[in-house]
Fold these 2 entries.
Entry 1:
Amino acid sequence: MSDSIHLTDNRTGKSYDLPVTHGTIRAMDLRQIKTGPEDFGLMTYDPAFMNTASCMSSITYIDGDRGILRYRGYPIEELAAKCTFLDVAWLLLNGELPNSEESVEWAHKIRYHTMIHENLKKFMEGFRHDAHPMGMLMSTVAALSTFYPESRDVKNKQSRKMQIMRLIGKMPTIAAYAYRHNLGLPYVYPDNTLGYTSNFLSMLWKMTEPKYDANPVLAKALDILFILHADHEQNCSTNTMRAVGSSQADPYLSLAAASAALAGPLHGGANEEVLLMLDEIGSLSNVHAFVDKVKAGQCKLMGFGHRVYKNYDPRAKIIKQTAEEVFKVTGANPKLEIAIELEQIALRDEYFIKRKLYPNVDFYSGIIYQAMGFHPAMFTVLFAIPRTVGWLTQWQELVDDGEQKIARPRQIYTGHDERHVGQPVEEHAVSVAR
Ligand code: CMC
């Protein structure tokens, strides 16, 4: 049996054999299927990319039906249990886990890119006191582009490596400054004696003490959450990173665009929405009524459902375990019982079962973040820090992929056929006035 598909065009009676590789036909192979020489050729129509592979990628594997997520072949459960976020970042970017020498050197390099230019700090000071931290983050990342004009040379591998280290190093600093800005607190400079997440916590919460010692359980929990959020193949923001990157825009601009995509409530903004939803529900006694509203189509159960996972989201499971560790330190978030009750009802209810709706990564992450002391507006920023690694890895793969070109989908035009302007508008207006 050959790896091809046999098609007959009933419009013309002609037959075609199209090769099938990786369970896929090439959309461009359809172009030869025409009704005549004037015909453009057959296209596919796929709004929201429900069934279109836009790239070949060796980074992240997801089997949504079996709830499997792997980075470079390693199950997410093992990475979360045994690795640090920075080692996972190295794995994603380089394809292999680092040895101990590489791991130390990598952490050192990232640490020495955590400072931001004082002018960038001033730029951030210009935001309103109550600016949404996600808006601050994405604008500041775009502004970074003006500080590193050499980043425009996207074909230069050495320069690319430098921008990648800068971005991974600087994202927590920008995020922490955005947080402090909201609270009216002075910005805290990075402390290069600390690890990635401990340093981030220090920049967030250091007050007058000379050195901030993060609670190791919280620093570890954040590190695990960062691992879980590091990459997720061709989601909305990664697709944005690739689409903008395909025009050869520099990585700061592409990443700012990716963060904008992440900010939406159906994507990374969902974690903030979950907390707002739990606030709206308020107490256990209101949970049933809220589920009825969801089933009546009046609102969504935020933190539920996924385009790819139709069984369970493996990240949600790990987050639930991590929550237990965090709550031992912080005390339980009272919203946890509302969330658990929602989950229990939803998992038994025909509406959710039929549509294969399960808790996703955002359902429990916000509850942990809030218990740790973050306000909901920061939650998506906490998603953007680790996803920076995934965006950059995907961008790097795109730039090195000889098959990729500028992203440019087709459309099916449904507007008017050619028509002509009658009386010029101005003249018409004058004649009406007369
Ligand atoms: N609550 C209630 N109904 C839902 C939900 C939900 N959260 N999600 C999907 N549905 C329903 C939807 O109305 C549709 O019903 P019907 O067939 O009767 O029209 C059916 O389930 C299929 O949904 P869909 O909209 O076709 O699914 P999608 O793959 O286009 O959307 C999603 C996926 C994640 C955008 C969607 O499930 C959603 O809006 N969830 C809530 C927001 C959320 O939690 N987003 C985070 C996603 S995971 C992390 C990330 O990507 O950042």
Note: The pocket of carboxymethyl coenzyme *A is lined by residues 235, 266-268, 270, 294, 300-307, 355, 357, 360-362 (CB under 6 Å).
Entry 2:
Amino acid sequence: MTYSIPAEPYDFTFDPAATALLIIDMQRDFVDSGGFGELLGNDVAPLREVIAPIGRVLAAWRARGLLAIHTREGHRPDLSDCPPAKLARGKLEIGIGDQGPLGRVLVRGEWGHDIVEELRPLPNEPVIDKPGKGSFYATDLSGILAHRGIHSLIVTGVTTEVCVHTTVREANDRGYECLVLSDCVGSYFPEFQVAALKMIAAQGGIFGWVAPSSQLLSALPE
Ligand code: TIU
């Protein structure tokens, strides 16, 4: 059974059984004070605004027994999967692997690396630990999607122009159809939020589709 919802640049058509909700990097390191995002010089407030809308979509998705997948950006405690170039980037006083207010920055197993309580994954929801900005690079996401017969993705999370964009571009090149929920993705930069969403839907939907979550919520089957 397929459903169509109004979106940019035109209606997004999907079969819920062949669609996964992807929640990208809703980790304390990006949305909490003292995390990696703030250490990079950002104000985390705009990112916190997406927690509630994602929570509403996740609840509706779960209520219908559909597949949600969570991702986390981070590295092994020995940092062997972190490129030296990424480690050095930004010349941060407290950077990746260093002890910060939320534990070692962007390191798996640390408090800051984990997903915020409001969006905590259920035991049956895959969590993809990724070393890069994209969710496909050096992860088993492709296999998980193939095993479940998924070919469409509803994309949420942070940040719009970095990990969301990289993931949508990777997914698009792999043949997935992506709908990005405009109120469920966040950027530290208001101007990047606007431009990044425009880039996805421009040129006939060059990477995918964009719609507010209200359109998805009203289209989902009861
Ligand atoms: N800094 C920034 O905007 N983003 C990241 O470093 N990672 C993600 O977007 N998850």
Note: Residues 106 and 204 are 36 Å apart (CA to CA).
